Amino acid sequence: MRAIHDGDLAAFVRGLQREPWLLGEGCVGFQVGLIERATLRDRGEFITALLGLDPALLRRQPPPRSQALEFALTYAKPHLIPVLSRIWPPPDDLPHAAAMGDLPRVKQWFDESGAPALGDLQNHFSCASPQARLDLQWGEPTAQHVLDTALALSVINRHFEVADFLLEHGADINTPWSSHEPASILHELVFQGNYESMRFLIDRGIDMTINDYRWNATAHGWALYAAKDQKMAQWLEEAERQREVGAR
Question: Is 86 among the domain residues?
Answer without folding.
Answer: yes
